[in-house]
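#struct-help
A.M.: can someone run this one for me? Single chain, 625 residues.
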Amino acid sequence: MADHEDLRKLKPKLVRARIEELLAADLSDAELRERFEELSRAIAFSGYTWLWGPELYRRNRVMFRPFISSHFSSDLIKPNWRWERVEWKKETGERLDAWLSEVDARGDADLFRQLYAWKHRTGQWGGLDQKRWQADLLERYQAAETPAARGSVLDRFDLWVRLDEPAAITLYETDARTAVPFILKHLPGEYDQKFKFWHQLRDKALAEGDQEFAFEIYRRQVDQKTWMSDILRLADEITDPQMLCDQLEKHHPQRWNIDAGMPIFRLVEKRGRDVFPYVRKHLASVYRSWWGGRDGYTGLVRLAAKQQWWDLWSALVRMCARPEEYNAEVVRLIDSRELSGQERQRRLLMLTGIAREWNYGPFSIARVQQLNDETAVKLYERDPDLLRGPFRMNVSAGWYQTYPKLSEAVIDAEDERMIDFFASRFVTRAGSWGWAEQMLETAERYSRYYEEFRDDDREFARRATNVLGQVPAFAIGNFNELTRKNRLARMFYARSPARYLAYPEGIRDLLEAPQIHAQAVAFRVLGLPDERARQLAAANIDLLLATLLRPLHRATRTLAFRALANAAVDLETAQRIHHQCREAMYLPNKRYPKENLVGLIGQLLHEWPELRTASEQPVVYGVPV
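D.P.: on it. Structure tokens below:
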């Protein structure tokens, strides 16, 4: 077979000829699979699914089914990256019709959906023929005799197509219990713009006592005007606050293009604190204002302040305010002459903390409102303890704030805590986008400040450790670019690791820092050929041993190996390291630098012969006497 690059460039006719040759050859299933895997590197290969797919499926469905799924395609891509559709007609159509019938008979729903969508696609982008899809779906669904058979039909026809209301009613009347999840999945409304509310199906569900399904239709299809009218009517009719909130929750829309600001404002205006449990849960909806104006947010903030509902007011400002609105509220409180110092501070504290967060399984993002430079300076001058404490994350130097005035203020005040905090943010900034140049200028200003300690190694190491210990995890992307462009980063990460030995108390803090490059600084320090480094490495052996089993980049792990070699200052410590190294040899990670690990084991055995097993004892060969 030709090499990889030649295969990719094969013309479609040659690819087809090779496919036919392989299918006609007397090969075992395993050999055929191996040859097809190699030929699949050709760009045009997947375009001949109609040719090889049916044959492989009939030959050995268990062996070839994953291969078919991986390379299935209804388009032919040519070596010049021009593509054309493979039409379901003539010889191709005959082969595919037979294959579709076989797949349908076997109940292979996944492959059935792929073939069915291929056969009935329409339009420039290959959209599915909705009328044909609905007709086939209803015919099969009504013909099925059991709930299991009807569920199998729905599984086969679970394609990216929307139902219309008559078809949904037919499904519901035939077998509501089986059809409801399918109907909701193919219900227009959440992302569709042009549709009519399904009143008939909703009324039918209510008549059947299926409240849950009826409200699900309502939430996904209700328009803003109808929803606001309904919730205001509920507010007039229901007197019990708990019952009202339950009904409001049932009616809350799930459509993305609903601006909840004005309806929630009107609701709070009408019922006040009675609806707070519901409103607090959905305050984030008020933020959706780019198509609906800010009337709802503005009215809510003013109403909350007028009624002295400070819990609602603070949540609104923190979660829903734009940056300029948030800063205006903070400035208004700072400049207030009417409030006592204690009350002013209380309301300012209510504006701190996370504004909103997004959680995607193990991945989360938290948003914090940022003060602008002028507001931050004013707050620092009026109440510095607030900025040092609760408001510190509100001046965390995001991707567009550089805080030059606040930086000068904290440096002039010799505010060590704030200086080190800001340095921990600017030490991660590099690039050529947006405000990167201004951030690098601010980082340069902080580097000049820390240069004042260049003659005092202990003080420099103490402050550098404070800074690096506050750098958030994953805050550095391109480390090489960072140290090349950011002078503050070069000062802390790249220059003179021996200076950190002057502050041994900080080494453990670096080893436990959230940012891996701060940990790498500690590994580099502990691996130095210095007696102080050896003693420190031995004192932190518990953390260093963990690096043998942690996921680390190769370069960082190599630095950790050097620190571990330094830590072997006595037999007991050497035994612990040697044992853990032996365990690490069994790790399945292919990128693990096992050759470096073997080198570390060899170094330990050389320095501590007591650790050698019988097979590792040196053998001296000589002439027999």
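A.M.: thanks! The mean pLDDT is 92.
D.P.: also worth noting: Residues 4-119 form one domain.
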